[in-house]
């Protein structure tokens, strides 16, 4: 016989802190602390830098150069622009030179434009990927939050079951002591109570695992999560109407395809020459002599005639990458369409199960009440009562899980449709006391 006091002490006490954690706060903490989000944001910064680097090619390059050289034999200090035998050139073994110059690409047949377009498209793809990552993290946090609520709700149903069976065990012992029932009733009640205690241990373990998962997502400790009360969630939104135009994964794939197509133009531009203008001011001297400055202005072009097939290989590679990116867009659309269908089906099934379990819970509660009354007046058996209590627990436990499954299914549908932003969360998920 297991003492009743053991089960009463095992009943889970509610969290002790006064502030309830809401799902919105949990999402904000996860987005602020999780490394997955930090990686995606860093990728956006990298793409930003790539855009700035590509745009820098539209500006002239300015450089400052200097050199100090020592020759084995004397070298002319200043260039010979003319030969004047009355003023022979100066020679020295130690020469110095300083210059400041600028160069600008006047025309490159669209290479810079293509590279800038590709970098900008990659930046848009990084933004879309960040959005997708944030939506995935928000959905994962909501599911983890619901898992904690579900586990705690199931544990609460277990506690009610334990309390009811503990009361039945006490009643059976009193009736046995008064000679009004057989010992088998006491043993049966004790056995059911022991089974309920074992089930409660498993439920408590589920609560601990769920709390640990949510704590990791939020960047807090399991002990802090264990002591935190969670606000309930009520779903208020309707179904999303149309599929995948705003799906972040599709948008990211489309932007990557744009970048790949632009890279083809940049690769093809390498077939044609580049026209450049340059200018500089050059100062020359020996170590102890005077400095003489002169300006230079130039116009030139560069056209690699033969590259051993490197240009054609680069073009073929860019074209193949573009085709792959286009097919990746098609594949992402197909996957998204399938995900939308699956999510809608799961949502419909969850709603139907929730409605059925609502009716089952109400009926099981009434059956348990009637069998308890019948047992008390001698028209029913203890076995009937215990069976009714077990059915009531299953209904209550299933109802808790089904209610949260509906919310999780709707959140997943919102993520796939690209709706899962702060506005949708604020308008569709209502916190309850």
pLDDT averaged residue by residue: 87
Measured by DSSP, the beta-strand proportion falls in: 15-25%
**SSE ordering:** HEHHEEHHHEEHEEHHHE
For the biggest sheet, the summary is:
4 strands, antiparallel
Give the uncertain stretches in residue-range form: 1-18, 241-245
Number of DSSP E strands: 8
| Number of self-contained structural domains | 1
Task: Report, as a whole number of angstroms, the end-to-end distance.
Answer: 39 Å
Structural class: alpha+beta
Q: What is the helical fraction, as a range of percent?
A: 55-70%
Order of strands, main sheet, comes to 2-3-6-7
Radius of gyration: 38 Å
Q: What are the defining features of this structure?
A:
four-stranded antiparallel beta sheet; 8 strands; 16% strand; two-stranded parallel sheet; Outer membrane efflux proteins (OEP); alpha+beta; 433 residues; disordered N terminus; 64% helix
Explain what this protein looks like in three dimensions:
With 433 residues, the protein is α+β, with helices and mostly antiparallel strands. A hairpin with a 5-residue loop joins strand 6 (274-286) and strand 7 (292-302). The strands form three sheets. It has a four-stranded antiparallel β-sheet, with no helix packed on it. A two-stranded parallel ribbon has the order 1-4. It has one domain (4-432): Outer membrane efflux proteins (OEP) (Up-down Bundle), CATH 1.20.1600. The chain is built from ten helices and eight strands. The protein has helices at 4-10, 23-33, 35-56, 111-177, 183-218, 222-226, 248-269, 310-376, 382-416, 422-428; strands at 20-21, 61-76, 91-107, 229-230, 232-235, 274-286, 292-302, 429-432. The protein is elongated. Helix 1 (4-10) packs antiparallel against helix 4 and helix 4 runs antiparallel to helix 7.
């Amino acid at each position: 016989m297991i003492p009743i006091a053991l089960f009463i002490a095992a009943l889970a006490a509610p969290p002790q802190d006064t502030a309830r954690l809401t799902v919105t706060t949990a999402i904000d903490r996860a987005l602020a602390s999780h490394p997955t989000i930090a990686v995606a944001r860093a990728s956006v910064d990298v793409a930003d830098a790539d855009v700035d680097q590509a745009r820098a090619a539209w500006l002239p390059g300015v450089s400052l150069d200097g050199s100090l050289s020592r020759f084995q034999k004397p070298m002319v200090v200043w260039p010979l622009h003319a030969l004047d035998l009355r003023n022979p050139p100066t020679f020295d073994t130690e020469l110095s030179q300083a210059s400041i110059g600028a160069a600008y690409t006047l025309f490159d047949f669209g290479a810079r434009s293509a590279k800038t377009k590709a970098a900008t498209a990659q930046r848009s793809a990084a933004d879309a990927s960040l959005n997708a990552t944030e939506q995935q993290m928000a959905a994962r946090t909501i599911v983890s939050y619901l898992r904690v609520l579900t586990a705690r709700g199931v544990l609460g149903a277990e506690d009610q079951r334990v309390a009811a069976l503990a009361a039945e065990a006490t009643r059976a012992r009193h009736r046995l002591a008064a000679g009004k029932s057989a010992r088998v009733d006491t043993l049966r009640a004790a056995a059911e109570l022991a089974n309920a205690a074992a089930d409660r241990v498993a439920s408590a373990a589920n609560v601990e695992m769920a709390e640990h998962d949510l704590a990791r997502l939020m960047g807090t400790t399991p002990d802090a999560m264990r002591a935190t009360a969670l606000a309930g969630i009520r779903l208020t939104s309707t179904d999303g109407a149309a599929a995948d135009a705003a799906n972040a994964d599709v948008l990211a794939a489309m932007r990557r395809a744009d970048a790949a197509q632009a890279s083809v133009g940049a690769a093809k531009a390498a077939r044609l020459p580049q026209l450049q203008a340059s200018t500089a001011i050059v100062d020359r001297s020996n170590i102890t002599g005077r400095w003489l400055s002169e300006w230079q202005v130039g116009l030139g072009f560069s056209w690699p005639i033969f590259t051993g097939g490197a240009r054609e290989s680069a073009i073929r590679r860019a074209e193949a990458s573009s085709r792959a990116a286009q097919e990746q867009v098609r594949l992402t659309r197909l996957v998204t369409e399938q995900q939308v269908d699956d999510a809608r089906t799961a949502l419909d099934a969850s709603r139907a199960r929730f409605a059925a379990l609502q009716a089952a819970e109400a009926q099981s509660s009434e059956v348990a009440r009637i069998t308890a009354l019948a047992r008390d007046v001698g028209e029913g058996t203890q076995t009937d009562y215990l069976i009714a209590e077990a059915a009531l627990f299953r209904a209550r436990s299933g109802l808790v899980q089904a209610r949260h499954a509906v919310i999780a299914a709707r959140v997943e549908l919102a993520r796939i449709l690209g709706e899962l932003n702060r506005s949708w969360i604020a308008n569709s998920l209502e916190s309850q006391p």
